[in-house]
Amino acid sequence: MRLCRKNVLPVVIGGLLAAGVAGTTATALAQSQARTAVDRPATGEVQSRPWAVAGGDIGIRWNNDLAGDLGIRIRPASVLGTRASDGSERFALQPFSQLRFNVDNGYAREMTGGALQARGGYRLELRDGSIDLDGFRLVPRKVAAGAEPEFDLVGADGVAWFHVDHVMHELLDDPAALTIGSSDIMISERLARRIGAPYAAGWPIGEVQLDATVQVRGSGGARPLANYITWHGAPAPNGGVYENDLFMQNTTLYYTRCRSCTGPNGSGQVVFTPSSTLKNNVNEGNISATVPGDPLGTSTARWTATIPWYQKFTAPSPPYQNDQHPYLIWNMYRTNADGSIEQIGRSGVKQAYLTTNGSCLDSGDHHGHALGRGCTDTYSAGNNDYTQGLSPRSELVPSAGLWGRCGSTFDTNCDGVMNTGPGDEYWERLVVRESQIAPSLHPGATWMYESWYIARDDINIYNSMSSRPVTPAWTGSTWNASNGSERLGPAIDRWFAQGNTPTNPRNPKLGARFERTLMTELVTEASRAKVAVKAKRLPNGLWQYHYAVMNFEFAFADITGTNPNIRVSNNQGFDAFALATSAGAQVSGTVFRDGDINAGNDWQFNAGGSGIEWRDAAGGNSLSWGVLYSFTLMSTKPPVDGVAILRADGATRPRSFQVATLVPGA
């Protein structure tokens, strides 16, 4: 169910051929006309006739690890589900059950009634008894007008023990079917109270998938209009140009599972996974906020391009003549009591494959594999916790948005046929050790995470990512992560803004006697990195320097082949960080942080007459893209304006870059 059926491809391509030409030629209609806004029903307009589905099958993929942590044992009921290759269990739908919905521009936008019932199901064994999910039903929930569909998962007793949201739905036309490729099964408040874990209300514990056959065709067609798609770089009205600018709208981090966890004094491996909702730029010849109230929430692109969203291993398609799609990564950080920052966990790459295009502002600029203006889409925690959708970061060149399919995890022999991923439920997940998140072991520390969508030709990567503080806590059987306020931009920006002493307007130089900070962005070779430093004078007279280097996009890789047979190899990041200073002899207390607990791969520190440096002497632990390393030193010398050097000595073509920063003075 996660792989879109190939019979939808002619629908997609058929809607793209003219649009693809229009987005790439100078004679296109895009030069002179704006796109068509979504039609709004007139007052008193005749109600649309609903569609209906019945029959087919429904799939459930439980997170049995999480269920076990919460004291829930999931057992089969009267009819066993058929095990699918993705780990889900498929149940036939009862033929008498029917789900009704309205269709708008090829999408199931409003559930109007009915329900779908499985033939078979589960029995949930709890500490105080059991819950009968035999013949469970999927019942539409009431949602706000224009909101994406949500459902209740109702047991044999008529109680909604779970609700289902973040629904990745698609209406197919040949044969006609309503499908759900992924969604989150969320624990209800009632169930959370019953199992004695009220904090678990709203936690994702599984996925619902669906393939239901259309029995009644109502108003509206099954194919999105998709007759006016404008790609990045296409000419826009009044001499403008359409541009990609993708925004992170919101993201939430969830506890997913733990291996050998015992609590704050343990060393178990903890997995956290986000759900992340994105939104395309809203501008159409004007400047308006896409994410109101956030300093990064407004795009500078006056004309919004449609963003390609093709599933990997599908046929080459416009505008890049490949299976281009966005990617998603997420990271976790700890800010220590001394003010230093450390990236303690990082995920692999989630490969996007479908967009539901919620809340779109135009009618003809999108379909299931193209994100239109103002459209939203969510990748659920369950979807982001799926091994066959994850791959190593080393396979991607983020600045170009290129995935090296040939020789990758999913195409080891470059034959264009998708392999099964090799990993388990911890492979390419964000994994941290209990010792890294235990507040009792890190008094005064705080934690945060960031989630980031990567879209090819995105003009502003910083509004495609956001960060949130999280508060980890051991509940006795699980780790919880309470989410704080969200802000667009990377975690390094948030860390840099923390704890800085406000400037005294009457004497601006006064604060500089005790604290100085500087953050510089490196932009070259179409890639970005940031170097931040916080220098503070301690009570003992020494100066403490905390440096953080965040590599957003630098990937010094060998790229060979042509679309769609791209190969990415020897992918590495920076392997040395140096400071030009003659005060090397006065430096002490150096610390290197790469986020793991393996001291054997730490960078080596060296001090000389003209500078100091940390470098990856052993090899294999470069500062790769999407990764932050931090460095601390003590010096008797106060900070002065200086230069940091980032090197990639081990790359096929070695590089060296200078970045303005603060260094210990002479």
Could you explain the architecture of this structure?
With 666 residues, the protein is mainly β. The chain is 7% helix and 42% strand. The chain has seven helices and 44 strands. Strands 1, 3, 4, 5, 6, 7, 10, 11, 12, 13 and 14 form an eleven-stranded antiparallel beta sheet that branches. Strand 3 and strand 4 form a beta hairpin. The protein starts with 8 loop residues before the first helix and ends with a strand.
Percent of residues in beta strands: 35-45%
- Please state the overall shape, judged from the principal axes of the Cα atoms: globular
Distance between the termini: 64 Å
Beta strand count:
44
In round numbers, the mean pLDDT is 91
Low-confidence stretches: 1-32, 40-46
Percent of residues in helices comes to under 10%
Q: Briefly note the structural class of the backbone.
A: mainly beta
Largest beta-sheet details: 11 strands, antiparallel
User: Whole-number radius of gyration?
Assistant: 26 Å
- The number of helices is 7
Overview features:
666 residues; mainly beta; 7 helices; disordered N terminus
TL;DR of this structure?
The chain is mainly beta. It is globular and about 85 Å long.
Fold topology:
Elements: H1 9-22, E1 51-62, H2 64-69, E2 73-76, E3 82-83, E4 89-92, E5 99-104, E6 107-114, E7 116-117, E8 121-126, E9 129-134, E10 137-140, E11 151-154, E12 160-173, E13 176-187, H3 189-194, E14 204-216, E15 242-243, E16 246-259, E17 269-280, E18 303-304, E19 307-308, E20 327-335, E21 341-346, E22 349-351, E23 370-371, E24 376-379, H4 381-384, E25 390-391, E26 396-397, E27 402-403, E28 430-433, H5 434-437, E29 446-454, E30 465-474, E31 479-483, E32 487-488, H6 491-497, H7 509-512, E33 515-524, E34 527-537, E35 543-551, E36 556-560, E37 567-572, E38 576-580, E39 587-593, E40 604-607, E41 611-615, E42 627-635, E43 639-648, E44 655-664
Parallel strand pairs: 15-18
Antiparallel strand pairs: 1-4, 1-5, 1-14, 2-8, 3-4, 5-6, 7-10, 8-9, 10-11, 11-12, 12-13, 13-14, 16-17, 17-24, 17-28, 19-23, 20-21, 20-22, 20-29, 22-25, 26-27, 29-30, 30-31, 30-32, 33-34, 34-35, 35-42, 36-37, 38-41, 38-43, 39-42, 40-41, 43-44
